[in-house]
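Subject: mismatched residue count in predicted assembly?

I count 338 residues in my input, but I want to confirm that the predicted structure covers every chain. Input:
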Amino acid sequence: MANETFKRLLCLGCGFSYDEALGLPEHGLAPGTRWKDVPDDWVCPDCGTPKHMFEMIVIGYAPGGADLAVTA
Amino acid sequence: MSQFIIRNEERGHDLIKSDGSRSSYIAGHPDGFVTRASSFDFHEYQAGRPGFGPIRVFGDEVFHGAGCGYNMHPHHNFVICAFVFSGELTHINTAGGGMVDRLSAGDYYVFSAGSGGKHSELSVTPEDMHAIYLWLLPEQLYLPPSYHRAHFDFRRRRNEIVQLVGDGDNTLPIPQDLRVSRLIADKGQNFPYALRTLSHGIYVFVREGRINCNGVELGYRDSMGLSDLATVSIDILDDDSDVLLVETILIDETTIKVWESEHAGD
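Triage response: the counts match. Full output below for your records.
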C-alpha cells in the first residue's frame, strides 16, 4: 500500500482539488494523507461540497501548478 | 457506434430559491430564484449520467427576477462556458485583473478557473435571463486563469454549423480537446458533422425546434450523445431549430463507465 500511487480528486461543486501527495497542511491534512483517511464528514474548504462528491481524476499539473495547489 | 438519449423531462429539474442558507449562494433574496435543468448529475440535484468525456455539467438555467443569479463564489480548475439566449447576464470575475462583463442574446464566454478565481453572475434587468452552462475538466490543473468572450450573430449565421469554442477560425480558446458549435436552421435542411477521430464523441442538444439526429427524433430540450462513429447526420424538422453541438475527446470517463455498467439495462 505504501507504494500505491498518490491520487488526485476534484470537487464537483467548484473544481477544488485534493492531492494525496500534497495534502492540505493549512487545513490540517499532512502531505501524504490518503483520501480514505480524510474524515467522512470533511467538506470542500471552498464550497462545502461533501467528500463523497469528489471525483478521482488523472490530470497533470500546469507548470508551477503543484506549488499553487499546496496553498490553495 | 454507441449512444444515449436524454429527453427533456429526464433531466434533473430544480428550482432554487434565494432563501434561508441558500441566499448566500443564490442572489436576489427574498424573491429571486434560479431554475436549472441538468443533463448530467450535478451536486445532489440529479441521479443521472455523470457526464460525457470531460463534460460534467450541461445546465439549462433561467435567472428569474431582477437581481437574481449566483453570488460571488470561488472556482478552481473547471472550465466554465456560458451561452446567453435571452435577457442579460452581468458577469463579475476576479480572473486576471478582475472585470465586469455584460452578455446578452448571442454572447458567450469561456472562463478557465485554473489556479483559482471568484465570480458572480447576475441578471440585473427586468427580463428573465436564459443561459446554458457547460463545465468541463481541463487538460491540466492550476492553469493561469483566463476569460474570453465573443458574440454569435444569430441573425446572419443561419443554416450553417458555426463553431464557437475550441480550435478553429474565430473561436474562443479552451484548454481541452473540445469544440462547441451552434446551428440555427430551417426545415428540410441536412447537416453532416464529421468527428475528428473515433476517439471523439458528440453531445447534441436541441434548444428549440425539432431534428432527426442519426435516426433519432429529438424535440425541445431533448439531447443525445454519440460516440464511436465518423459522422453525425442532422435533419432539421422544424423552422427556427436551434441546436448546440459539443464534440469532445472521450477521456476522464472512468466514473461514467462505472455508472453505465451499474445502469446497464435500465
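Residues 83 and 108 of chain B are 4 Å apart (CA to CA). Marking this ticket as 'not a bug'.
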